[in-house]
Amino acid sequence: MENKKIRVGITHGDVNGVGYEVILKAFEDPVMLELCTPIVYGSPKVAAYHRKAIDSPTNFSIINSATEAQDGRLNVVSCVDDEIKVELGKPNPEGGKAALDALEKALEEYREGMVDVLVTAPINKQTIQSDNFRFPGHTEYIQERVGEGKKALMILMRNELRVALVTGHIPLRDIASTITKELIQEKLHIFENSLRHDFCIRKPRIAVLALNPHAGDNGLIGQEEQEIIIPALSELKEKGMFCYGPYPADGFFGSGQFAKFDGILAMYHDQGLAPFKALAMEDGVNFTAGLPIVRTSPAHGTAYDIAGKGVASELSFRQAIYTAIDVCRNRMLDKELHAAGPLRKQYYEKRDDSDKLKLDTVD
Fold first, then answer.
1. Domain 1-149+291-363 has CATH 3.40.718.10
2. What gap in Å lies between CA 266 and CA 274, rounded to an integer?
3. Residue 342: pLDDT above 80?
4. What is the pLDDT of residues 244-263, one digit of tens each?
């Protein structure tokens, strides 16, 4: 398993943003091609246009599907109209359609077993909207297409810092009414399961942030902590989950408390992502937990303001590839260990004077 090259499917995202730039820059390092077999779903013509715009030395092979992918090369599957109009730094419907075409092709070939993991370059959530895409973003679309009925959880991560969300891309005014005890527990179950099986943490410790300032001040500033969050955590603690809180969100990151936990569950998007990006904007990764597919993406957007200027950092995108490979291998290892059944432990029972070999099973 350690010697197997992971086939990494990569969608090019919005062609007017920095997607191709970070892809090409990431694979300027030949070591990347030793770690995986990259397969970009997009347009060779557009890829060449971006390569020229940023003067990148990265070469690629043009293929019809992932079955033709060559090891040691960056491969590009042609699945987008080559006559697409590229307007660097400007969102347009053509860019949205090209992003969706690439995503659909990548998921089609994933379902057919041609790629092992998926890494998505940033899209524009407005221009990609169409009759075939009416979702807030990548995560919800991927859950619908290849989730097999399972629920996704967005985790923003860098090394040991992992931040997940109870609510995602919804208006601020709807957050309090959306949060329920059942929803918090559902997210915590997905989070814990991912920490155990995707990151090999046997007994993960999860911190849960409060919704209201000062964690509600015992009900003086909102009732959600007393009526929803605390009961949700108490029930899960009784069942053996190591979940703690709710912690006031304002000082949790600044005080360094986050370093004591394997994961942090925030109540809403900006509560978790604002401090995360302040700490890890350069090389943070967006990981979609809870689904059969391993999917990651960089923790930044299309960055129209710097598209085509050659100044975009590829660190976050490279980390997204590393994370996808690591999670894929962790899942394979976890599957192997569980398929083998309980380990059998051999020992001598001290109180047995016959020195008879004893056999027992352990988890």
1. yes
2. 11
3. no
4. 999 999 999 999 999 999 99
Report, as an integer, the average pLDDT of 85-93: 94
- Reported as a single tens digit per residue, the pLDDT across 161-180 is 999 999 988 999 999 999 99
The token duo for 268 is: 């809403």
Helix then strand then coil, % of the chain, to nearest 5: 40, 20, 40
Residue 231 has pLDDT above 90, yes or no: yes
298: cis peptide before it, omega within 30°? Answer: no
Of all helices (H) and strands (E), which one includes residue 245?
strand 242-247
Map out the domains of the chain as residue ranges. 1-149+291-363, 151-282
Are 142 and 42 within 8 A, CB to CB? no
Q: Are 191 and 236 in contact (CB under 8 A)?
A: no
Interval 118-146 mean pLDDT:
93
Q: In this structure, are residues 208 and 215 in contact, taking their beta carbons and an 8 Å threshold? A: no
Pair of tokens at residue 138: 């990548």
Res. 51: pLDDT tops 90: yes
Contact 8, 26 (CB under 8 A): no
Instruction: List pLDDT tens digits, range 279-325.
Output: 998 899 999 999 999 999 999 999 999 999 999 999 999 999 999 99
Pairing, β 74-78 against β 161-165: unpaired
Strands 36-42 and 74-78: parallel
Measured CA distances, 65 to 61, 167, 209, 350 (Å): 11, 36, 44, 62
Domain 151-282 CATH (choose: 2.20.25.160, 1.10.10.10, 3.10.20.740, 3.40.718.10): 3.40.718.10
Asked if domains 1-149+291-363 and 151-282 share a fold, the reply is yes
DSSP for residue 177: H
Name the region of 164 (left: φ>0; alpha: ψ -120 to 50; beta: rest).
Answer: beta
Helix, coil or strand: residue 88: coil
Within 13 A of 242's CA, how many CA atoms are on the CB side?
13
Q: Which amino acid is residue 8, in one-letter code?
A: V
Q: Encoding tokens for residue 331?
A: 């899942």
List residues bridging with 161 in a β-sheet: 158
